[in-house]
Input
Amino acid sequence: LDQDPEAIATAHDLAEKDPRVHIIAGRFSELSDISSHLISMLDGALIDFGVSSPQLDDPKRGFSFTNDGPLDMRMNPAAGQSAREWLARASQEEIREVLKTYAGEKYADNIAEKIVTTRNINALETTKDLVRCVLAAVPSIKSTHHPATKTFQAIRMQVNDELREITLGLTLITERLKP
Output
């Protein structure tokens, strides 16, 4: 089960070698709707949450803060609103809360303020636009992580509604597990 069209295509290639594998396109929260005709009960479940290397490595997906690309971050680029769209309409308070809640970003206030100030002058269109906002909002400190890591994580989680998907998906999976 995956919502990323590229991951689904890769899975189909791999599944050709193993007839036990069934590929289902969709979100975790849709499991009961899309799987009832294929899966009545599960022997087990292997779940991989979050972003993958192919998504991060492809600048046009908008997940990477190291390679410039459109500010997207959607697991399924054909569904929902992009990070660009969300950042264009979200209030400063909403952005701050997302950064704090989904990433524990200690500079959430500064970053949210910089995003709103910047978008009022020029729209945030690319991942580099967002990186510039973060770099301008946080103090320069030595770290093993890029200063935009947490911001990108939080916005990706918001855009894809990841916590809701995980919560609903786990509930649906456990309901289908054999005793």
Summary: The chain has a mean pLDDT of 88. Residues 162-176 form the longest helix (15 residues). The two ends are 22 Å apart (CA to CA).
